[in-house]
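ok trying this again, last paste got cut off
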Amino acid sequence: MSDNPALFDFLRHEAYGFVNRAGKDLVGLREHLQLALDRSATAIERKNDLSDREVAKIIDDVCRWTINRYNPPKRKPARTSEQRAADYLLVAELHEMTVETGKPSVRRTAAISGRSKSTVSRHLIRQGVAPRRSKKVKSLTQPTRKLISVLDETFHRRDAGLIDRDALAAAVWGSGREDKVAKSTLSSRRKRLSASVRELSAAGVGYSLLEYRELIAVQRGRRFRSYKDAALWIDDELRTRGKVMPRLPRAEPSPQLFWADRWVRDVIAIMRLGCFGRVTSVAQLEPVLRIMHLLLDLTSLYPWLRRAVDSFHSTYFPDNLHLLADRIENQVTRRAARDLAHALDRFFRFNEYMPPVFDMFQNVDIVFDVLAKAGDIDPQSRFRLEHLRDHVFWGEERDFLELEPYLSALAEQELKGQWHFPGYANEPK
Protein backbone atom coordinates (compact mmCIF):
# COMPACT_ATOMS: atom_id res chain seq x y z
CA MET A 1 0.00 0.00 0.00
CA SER A 2 1.34 3.48 -0.91
CA ASP A 3 2.17 6.07 1.77
CA ASN A 4 -0.13 8.50 -0.05
CA PRO A 5 -3.09 6.67 -1.61
CA ALA A 6 -4.61 9.86 -3.07
CA LEU A 7 -1.41 10.75 -4.96
CA PHE A 8 -0.95 7.13 -6.06
CA ASP A 9 -4.50 7.06 -7.44
CA PHE A 10 -3.98 10.34 -9.32
CA LEU A 11 -0.74 9.12 -10.90
CA ARG A 12 -2.29 5.71 -11.69
CA HIS A 13 -5.01 7.25 -13.87
CA GLU A 14 -2.41 9.45 -15.59
CA ALA A 15 -0.35 6.33 -16.28
CA TYR A 16 -3.33 4.49 -17.76
CA GLY A 17 -3.97 7.32 -20.21
CA PHE A 18 -0.33 7.39 -21.29
CA VAL A 19 -0.15 3.59 -21.80
CA ASN A 20 -3.37 3.64 -23.81
CA ARG A 21 -1.83 6.23 -26.15
CA ALA A 22 1.85 5.25 -26.31
CA GLY A 23 2.09 1.68 -25.04
CA LYS A 24 4.17 0.33 -22.18
CA ASP A 25 7.22 2.61 -22.42
CA LEU A 26 8.80 2.70 -18.95
CA VAL A 27 11.11 5.68 -19.56
CA GLY A 28 8.42 7.72 -21.29
CA LEU A 29 5.90 6.80 -18.56
CA ARG A 30 8.19 8.04 -15.78
CA GLU A 31 8.79 11.34 -17.60
CA HIS A 32 5.06 11.77 -18.24
CA LEU A 33 4.19 11.22 -14.56
CA GLN A 34 6.79 13.72 -13.44
CA LEU A 35 5.43 16.35 -15.86
CA ALA A 36 1.84 15.60 -14.78
CA LEU A 37 2.92 16.02 -11.16
CA ASP A 38 4.50 19.40 -11.88
CA ARG A 39 1.53 20.69 -13.93
CA SER A 40 -1.40 19.66 -11.76
CA ALA A 41 -2.30 21.94 -8.85
CA THR A 42 -4.26 19.08 -7.27
CA ALA A 43 -1.20 16.81 -7.35
CA ILE A 44 1.00 19.59 -5.92
CA GLU A 45 -1.36 19.92 -2.96
CA ARG A 46 -1.32 16.16 -2.41
CA LYS A 47 2.49 15.93 -2.37
CA ASN A 48 3.18 18.95 -0.14
CA ASP A 49 3.71 16.78 2.92
CA LEU A 50 6.06 14.37 1.11
CA SER A 51 9.76 14.64 0.44
CA ASP A 52 11.21 14.40 -3.06
CA ARG A 53 12.46 10.91 -2.25
CA GLU A 54 8.98 9.75 -1.19
CA VAL A 55 7.42 11.27 -4.34
CA ALA A 56 9.99 9.48 -6.51
CA LYS A 57 9.19 6.21 -4.74
CA ILE A 58 5.45 6.64 -5.44
CA ILE A 59 6.22 7.34 -9.12
CA ASP A 60 8.32 4.16 -9.27
CA ASP A 61 5.50 2.19 -7.59
CA VAL A 62 2.96 3.49 -10.12
CA CYS A 63 5.27 2.69 -13.06
CA ARG A 64 5.93 -0.83 -11.79
CA TRP A 65 2.22 -1.44 -11.14
CA THR A 66 1.19 -0.16 -14.57
CA ILE A 67 3.82 -2.01 -16.58
CA ASN A 68 3.28 -5.32 -14.78
CA ARG A 69 -0.47 -5.39 -14.19
CA TYR A 70 -2.30 -2.97 -16.44
CA ASN A 71 -3.59 -4.28 -19.76
CA PRO A 72 -4.83 -1.55 -22.13
CA PRO A 73 -8.37 -2.16 -23.44
CA LYS A 74 -8.47 -3.71 -26.87
CA ARG A 75 -9.63 -1.50 -29.65
CA LYS A 76 -12.97 -2.47 -31.07
CA PRO A 77 -12.43 -3.64 -34.68
CA ALA A 78 -13.78 -1.37 -37.39
CA ARG A 79 -15.74 -4.30 -38.86
CA THR A 80 -17.34 -7.36 -37.33
CA SER A 81 -16.40 -10.90 -38.32
CA GLU A 82 -19.65 -11.17 -40.28
CA GLN A 83 -18.80 -8.03 -42.27
CA ARG A 84 -15.35 -9.40 -43.03
CA ALA A 85 -16.89 -12.71 -44.11
CA ALA A 86 -19.32 -10.87 -46.39
CA ASP A 87 -16.40 -9.05 -48.01
CA TYR A 88 -14.62 -12.37 -48.43
CA LEU A 89 -17.57 -13.90 -50.28
CA LEU A 90 -18.34 -10.75 -52.28
CA VAL A 91 -14.83 -10.25 -53.63
CA ALA A 92 -14.94 -13.41 -55.78
CA GLU A 93 -18.27 -12.34 -57.32
CA LEU A 94 -16.96 -8.84 -58.04
CA HIS A 95 -13.83 -10.34 -59.55
CA GLU A 96 -16.01 -12.23 -62.04
CA MET A 97 -17.93 -9.03 -62.79
CA THR A 98 -14.73 -7.32 -63.96
CA VAL A 99 -14.94 -9.51 -67.07
CA GLU A 100 -17.58 -7.08 -68.34
CA THR A 101 -15.11 -4.19 -68.10
CA GLY A 102 -12.19 -6.07 -69.59
CA LYS A 103 -9.69 -8.58 -68.34
CA PRO A 104 -10.27 -9.60 -64.68
CA SER A 105 -7.71 -8.06 -62.37
CA VAL A 106 -7.17 -7.32 -58.71
CA ARG A 107 -6.93 -3.60 -59.49
CA ARG A 108 -10.42 -3.47 -61.09
CA THR A 109 -11.92 -5.62 -58.33
CA ALA A 110 -10.46 -3.31 -55.69
CA ALA A 111 -11.90 -0.27 -57.48
CA ILE A 112 -15.39 -1.82 -57.57
CA SER A 113 -15.38 -3.12 -53.99
CA GLY A 114 -13.79 -0.08 -52.38
CA ARG A 115 -11.18 -2.28 -50.66
CA SER A 116 -7.42 -2.12 -50.97
CA LYS A 117 -5.62 -4.26 -53.54
CA SER A 118 -3.84 -6.23 -50.80
CA THR A 119 -7.17 -7.05 -49.12
CA VAL A 120 -8.76 -8.13 -52.39
CA SER A 121 -5.71 -10.22 -53.29
CA ARG A 122 -5.74 -11.93 -49.88
CA HIS A 123 -9.43 -12.83 -50.18
CA LEU A 124 -8.98 -14.17 -53.72
CA ILE A 125 -5.98 -16.29 -52.75
CA ARG A 126 -7.96 -17.84 -49.86
CA GLN A 127 -10.60 -18.88 -52.40
CA GLY A 128 -8.07 -20.29 -54.82
CA VAL A 129 -8.32 -17.38 -57.28
CA ALA A 130 -4.77 -16.38 -58.18
CA PRO A 131 -4.51 -15.34 -61.86
CA ARG A 132 -0.74 -14.82 -61.85
CA ARG A 133 -0.09 -18.10 -60.10
CA SER A 134 -2.47 -19.94 -62.45
CA LYS A 135 -0.65 -18.50 -65.45
CA LYS A 136 2.69 -19.70 -64.08
CA VAL A 137 1.29 -23.15 -63.30
CA LYS A 138 -0.04 -23.54 -66.85
CA SER A 139 3.46 -22.95 -68.23
CA LEU A 140 4.93 -25.87 -66.27
CA THR A 141 5.22 -29.45 -67.46
CA GLN A 142 2.38 -31.86 -66.89
CA PRO A 143 4.12 -33.92 -64.13
CA THR A 144 4.93 -30.73 -62.23
CA ARG A 145 1.31 -29.58 -62.50
CA LYS A 146 0.20 -32.94 -61.08
CA LEU A 147 2.74 -32.50 -58.27
CA ILE A 148 1.27 -29.07 -57.49
CA SER A 149 -2.26 -30.49 -57.32
CA VAL A 150 -1.11 -33.12 -54.80
CA LEU A 151 0.76 -30.57 -52.67
CA ASP A 152 -2.15 -28.10 -52.79
CA GLU A 153 -4.41 -30.81 -51.39
CA THR A 154 -1.87 -31.83 -48.73
CA PHE A 155 -0.69 -28.46 -47.42
CA HIS A 156 -2.52 -25.31 -46.34
CA ARG A 157 -1.56 -21.92 -47.77
CA ARG A 158 1.22 -21.37 -45.20
CA ASP A 159 1.97 -24.90 -44.11
CA ALA A 160 5.11 -27.03 -44.10
CA GLY A 161 6.04 -30.64 -43.64
CA LEU A 162 8.02 -33.68 -44.72
CA ILE A 163 6.82 -36.24 -47.26
CA ASP A 164 8.36 -39.59 -48.06
CA ARG A 165 9.85 -39.38 -51.54
CA ASP A 166 8.44 -42.66 -52.82
CA ALA A 167 4.98 -41.97 -51.33
CA LEU A 168 4.87 -38.61 -53.11
CA ALA A 169 5.98 -40.22 -56.37
CA ALA A 170 3.26 -42.86 -55.98
CA ALA A 171 0.67 -40.10 -55.48
CA VAL A 172 1.83 -38.27 -58.63
CA TRP A 173 2.34 -41.20 -60.99
CA GLY A 174 0.53 -44.07 -59.31
CA SER A 175 -2.67 -44.75 -57.44
CA GLY A 176 -1.46 -43.11 -54.23
CA ARG A 177 -0.95 -46.47 -52.48
CA GLU A 178 2.56 -47.64 -51.65
CA ASP A 179 2.25 -50.90 -53.56
CA LYS A 180 5.34 -52.82 -54.54
CA VAL A 181 6.62 -51.63 -57.90
CA ALA A 182 9.47 -52.74 -60.11
CA LYS A 183 12.90 -51.32 -59.31
CA SER A 184 13.15 -49.77 -62.75
CA THR A 185 9.78 -48.04 -62.29
CA LEU A 186 10.79 -46.78 -58.84
CA SER A 187 14.09 -45.44 -60.18
CA SER A 188 12.34 -43.70 -63.07
CA ARG A 189 9.79 -42.10 -60.73
CA ARG A 190 12.54 -40.79 -58.45
CA LYS A 191 14.37 -39.17 -61.36
CA ARG A 192 11.22 -37.55 -62.72
CA LEU A 193 10.24 -36.41 -59.21
CA SER A 194 13.65 -34.77 -58.71
CA ALA A 195 13.24 -32.90 -61.98
CA SER A 196 9.73 -31.77 -61.02
CA VAL A 197 10.91 -30.67 -57.56
CA ARG A 198 13.63 -28.49 -59.09
CA GLU A 199 11.21 -27.02 -61.62
CA LEU A 200 8.58 -26.29 -58.99
CA SER A 201 11.03 -24.67 -56.58
CA ALA A 202 12.17 -22.27 -59.29
CA ALA A 203 8.68 -21.55 -60.67
CA GLY A 204 7.71 -18.94 -58.08
CA VAL A 205 4.26 -20.36 -57.29
CA GLY A 206 4.63 -20.37 -53.51
CA TYR A 207 6.51 -23.63 -52.92
CA SER A 208 10.06 -24.20 -51.68
CA LEU A 209 11.05 -27.86 -51.93
CA LEU A 210 14.24 -29.63 -50.91
CA GLU A 211 15.32 -33.25 -51.31
CA TYR A 212 16.89 -34.62 -48.15
CA ARG A 213 17.85 -38.29 -48.19
CA GLU A 214 14.57 -40.22 -48.60
CA LEU A 215 12.41 -37.18 -47.84
CA ILE A 216 10.99 -34.15 -49.60
CA ALA A 217 10.89 -31.06 -47.37
CA VAL A 218 8.06 -28.71 -48.33
CA GLN A 219 7.55 -25.08 -47.34
CA ARG A 220 4.44 -23.37 -48.72
CA GLY A 221 4.33 -19.59 -48.62
CA ARG A 222 7.89 -19.48 -47.27
CA ARG A 223 11.39 -20.37 -48.40
CA PHE A 224 14.30 -22.22 -46.86
CA ARG A 225 16.98 -19.68 -45.92
CA SER A 226 19.90 -22.05 -46.41
CA TYR A 227 20.66 -25.74 -46.63
CA LYS A 228 22.02 -25.69 -43.07
CA ASP A 229 18.84 -24.14 -41.67
CA ALA A 230 16.78 -26.58 -43.72
CA ALA A 231 18.67 -29.56 -42.27
CA LEU A 232 18.06 -28.33 -38.71
CA TRP A 233 14.38 -27.74 -39.45
CA ILE A 234 14.01 -31.22 -40.99
CA ASP A 235 15.56 -32.93 -37.94
CA ASP A 236 13.26 -30.99 -35.62
CA GLU A 237 10.21 -31.70 -37.81
CA LEU A 238 10.96 -35.44 -37.87
CA ARG A 239 11.24 -35.49 -34.08
CA THR A 240 8.08 -33.46 -33.35
CA ARG A 241 5.60 -34.09 -36.19
CA GLY A 242 6.99 -36.87 -38.31
CA LYS A 243 6.10 -37.37 -41.95
CA VAL A 244 2.97 -36.22 -43.74
CA MET A 245 1.06 -38.57 -46.01
CA PRO A 246 0.32 -37.03 -49.42
CA ARG A 247 -3.32 -36.57 -50.35
CA LEU A 248 -4.71 -37.12 -53.82
CA PRO A 249 -6.85 -34.30 -55.28
CA ARG A 250 -10.48 -34.92 -54.45
CA ALA A 251 -12.72 -35.70 -57.38
CA GLU A 252 -15.99 -33.88 -56.82
CA PRO A 253 -19.01 -36.04 -57.66
CA SER A 254 -21.08 -34.97 -60.61
CA PRO A 255 -23.86 -32.62 -59.51
CA GLN A 256 -26.12 -34.34 -62.03
CA LEU A 257 -26.16 -37.52 -59.94
CA PHE A 258 -29.10 -37.82 -57.57
CA TRP A 259 -27.14 -39.24 -54.63
CA ALA A 260 -24.28 -36.75 -55.15
CA ASP A 261 -26.56 -33.75 -54.64
CA ARG A 262 -25.28 -31.72 -51.67
CA TRP A 263 -28.72 -31.28 -50.15
CA VAL A 264 -29.52 -34.99 -50.41
CA ARG A 265 -26.20 -35.94 -48.81
CA ASP A 266 -26.62 -33.40 -46.00
CA VAL A 267 -30.16 -34.56 -45.19
CA ILE A 268 -29.04 -38.18 -45.06
CA ALA A 269 -26.12 -37.22 -42.80
CA ILE A 270 -28.47 -35.34 -40.45
CA MET A 271 -30.83 -38.33 -40.32
CA ARG A 272 -27.90 -40.56 -39.42
CA LEU A 273 -26.96 -38.12 -36.64
CA GLY A 274 -30.53 -38.18 -35.35
CA CYS A 275 -30.46 -41.96 -34.98
CA PHE A 276 -27.79 -41.80 -32.27
CA GLY A 277 -28.68 -38.51 -30.61
CA ARG A 278 -25.04 -37.87 -29.75
CA VAL A 279 -22.36 -35.64 -31.21
CA THR A 280 -18.88 -37.09 -30.93
CA SER A 281 -17.04 -34.75 -33.31
CA VAL A 282 -17.50 -31.33 -34.83
CA ALA A 283 -17.39 -32.91 -38.31
CA GLN A 284 -20.82 -34.45 -37.65
CA LEU A 285 -22.25 -30.92 -37.36
CA GLU A 286 -21.05 -29.70 -40.75
CA PRO A 287 -24.28 -30.66 -42.63
CA VAL A 288 -26.37 -28.96 -39.94
CA LEU A 289 -24.25 -25.80 -40.09
CA ARG A 290 -24.48 -25.70 -43.89
CA ILE A 291 -28.28 -25.94 -43.84
CA MET A 292 -28.91 -23.60 -40.90
CA HIS A 293 -26.41 -21.03 -42.21
CA LEU A 294 -26.07 -19.42 -38.79
CA LEU A 295 -23.04 -17.27 -39.64
CA LEU A 296 -21.14 -16.27 -42.75
CA ASP A 297 -17.91 -16.91 -40.86
CA LEU A 298 -18.04 -19.85 -38.43
CA THR A 299 -14.50 -19.32 -37.13
CA SER A 300 -15.70 -17.78 -33.86
CA LEU A 301 -18.20 -20.62 -33.28
CA TYR A 302 -15.96 -23.65 -33.86
CA PRO A 303 -13.96 -23.42 -30.57
CA TRP A 304 -17.19 -23.48 -28.57
CA LEU A 305 -18.47 -26.46 -30.56
CA ARG A 306 -15.28 -28.37 -29.75
CA ARG A 307 -15.61 -27.50 -26.06
CA ALA A 308 -19.21 -28.69 -26.06
CA VAL A 309 -18.22 -31.99 -27.70
CA ASP A 310 -15.38 -32.58 -25.20
CA SER A 311 -17.27 -31.28 -22.16
CA PHE A 312 -17.32 -33.43 -19.02
CA HIS A 313 -20.60 -31.85 -17.90
CA SER A 314 -22.65 -34.40 -19.82
CA THR A 315 -22.72 -36.44 -23.02
CA TYR A 316 -25.70 -34.50 -24.36
CA PHE A 317 -24.28 -31.94 -26.80
CA PRO A 318 -27.22 -29.46 -26.87
CA ASP A 319 -27.11 -28.99 -23.09
CA ASN A 320 -23.35 -28.52 -23.11
CA LEU A 321 -23.51 -25.93 -25.88
CA HIS A 322 -26.41 -24.08 -24.25
CA LEU A 323 -24.45 -23.72 -21.00
CA LEU A 324 -21.31 -22.59 -22.82
CA ALA A 325 -23.29 -20.03 -24.85
CA ASP A 326 -23.76 -17.92 -21.71
CA ARG A 327 -20.00 -17.40 -21.61
CA ILE A 328 -19.63 -16.20 -25.22
CA GLU A 329 -18.96 -12.47 -25.27
CA ASN A 330 -19.73 -11.86 -28.95
CA GLN A 331 -23.48 -11.36 -29.21
CA VAL A 332 -23.82 -12.74 -32.75
CA THR A 333 -21.82 -15.87 -31.95
CA ARG A 334 -23.76 -16.36 -28.70
CA ARG A 335 -27.09 -16.21 -30.55
CA ALA A 336 -25.83 -18.67 -33.18
CA ALA A 337 -24.71 -21.13 -30.51
CA ARG A 338 -28.08 -20.95 -28.75
CA ASP A 339 -29.98 -21.40 -32.02
CA LEU A 340 -27.90 -24.47 -32.87
CA ALA A 341 -28.35 -25.97 -29.39
CA HIS A 342 -32.11 -25.40 -29.49
CA ALA A 343 -32.50 -26.90 -32.99
CA LEU A 344 -30.46 -30.01 -32.16
CA ASP A 345 -32.32 -30.49 -28.88
CA ARG A 346 -35.68 -30.43 -30.73
CA PHE A 347 -34.40 -32.77 -33.43
CA PHE A 348 -32.96 -35.32 -30.98
CA ARG A 349 -36.14 -35.34 -28.91
CA PHE A 350 -38.32 -35.81 -32.02
CA ASN A 351 -36.29 -38.89 -32.99
CA GLU A 352 -35.77 -40.30 -29.51
CA TYR A 353 -37.76 -43.47 -30.26
CA MET A 354 -36.40 -44.14 -33.77
CA PRO A 355 -39.42 -43.32 -35.94
CA PRO A 356 -39.81 -44.74 -39.46
CA VAL A 357 -37.59 -43.15 -42.07
CA PHE A 358 -40.42 -41.09 -43.61
CA ASP A 359 -41.26 -39.55 -40.22
CA MET A 360 -37.60 -38.82 -39.58
CA PHE A 361 -37.36 -36.96 -42.89
CA GLN A 362 -40.38 -34.92 -41.84
CA ASN A 363 -38.67 -34.15 -38.54
CA VAL A 364 -35.60 -32.88 -40.41
CA ASP A 365 -37.81 -30.59 -42.47
CA ILE A 366 -39.76 -29.34 -39.43
CA VAL A 367 -36.65 -28.45 -37.43
CA PHE A 368 -34.29 -27.22 -40.16
CA ASP A 369 -36.80 -26.10 -42.85
CA VAL A 370 -34.82 -27.97 -45.49
CA LEU A 371 -37.30 -27.96 -48.37
CA ALA A 372 -37.95 -24.21 -48.22
CA LYS A 373 -34.23 -23.38 -48.04
CA ALA A 374 -33.38 -25.77 -50.88
CA GLY A 375 -36.17 -24.25 -52.99
CA ASP A 376 -34.80 -20.73 -52.48
CA ILE A 377 -31.22 -21.71 -53.35
CA ASP A 378 -31.51 -24.64 -55.78
CA PRO A 379 -34.99 -25.73 -57.03
CA GLN A 380 -33.49 -28.87 -58.57
CA SER A 381 -32.25 -29.99 -55.16
CA ARG A 382 -35.69 -29.42 -53.65
CA PHE A 383 -37.17 -31.57 -56.42
CA ARG A 384 -34.75 -34.37 -55.54
CA LEU A 385 -35.55 -34.08 -51.83
CA GLU A 386 -39.26 -34.34 -52.57
CA HIS A 387 -38.62 -37.43 -54.68
CA LEU A 388 -36.58 -38.91 -51.82
CA ARG A 389 -39.46 -38.29 -49.43
CA ASP A 390 -42.39 -39.27 -51.66
CA HIS A 391 -40.92 -42.25 -53.53
CA VAL A 392 -37.97 -43.69 -51.60
CA PHE A 393 -39.15 -43.13 -48.01
CA TRP A 394 -42.94 -43.22 -48.48
CA GLY A 395 -44.60 -46.29 -46.96
CA GLU A 396 -41.38 -47.55 -45.32
CA GLU A 397 -41.85 -48.96 -41.85
CA ARG A 398 -38.13 -49.42 -41.31
CA ASP A 399 -36.03 -46.84 -39.49
CA PHE A 400 -33.10 -45.08 -41.11
CA LEU A 401 -30.38 -47.46 -39.88
CA GLU A 402 -32.24 -50.44 -41.35
CA LEU A 403 -32.75 -48.65 -44.68
CA GLU A 404 -29.27 -47.12 -45.01
CA PRO A 405 -27.64 -50.16 -46.74
CA TYR A 406 -30.40 -49.98 -49.36
CA LEU A 407 -29.67 -46.27 -49.95
CA SER A 408 -25.94 -47.01 -50.32
CA ALA A 409 -26.75 -49.72 -52.85
CA LEU A 410 -28.86 -47.28 -54.89
CA ALA A 411 -25.98 -44.79 -54.92
CA GLU A 412 -23.58 -47.46 -56.20
CA GLN A 413 -26.07 -48.53 -58.86
CA GLU A 414 -26.39 -44.93 -60.04
CA LEU A 415 -22.62 -44.66 -60.45
CA LYS A 416 -22.67 -47.84 -62.55
CA GLY A 417 -25.61 -46.61 -64.62
CA GLN A 418 -27.97 -49.27 -63.28
CA TRP A 419 -30.28 -46.83 -61.46
CA HIS A 420 -31.56 -43.52 -62.76
CA PHE A 421 -33.48 -40.77 -61.05
CA PRO A 422 -36.91 -41.12 -62.68
CA GLY A 423 -37.78 -37.48 -62.26
CA TYR A 424 -35.21 -36.03 -64.65
CA ALA A 425 -37.78 -35.55 -67.38
CA ASN A 426 -39.95 -33.33 -65.16
CA GLU A 427 -37.14 -31.77 -63.17
CA PRO A 428 -37.25 -27.91 -63.04
CA LYS A 429 -34.57 -26.10 -64.97
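PB: full thing came through this time. Confidence is low (pLDDT under 50) at residues 424-429.
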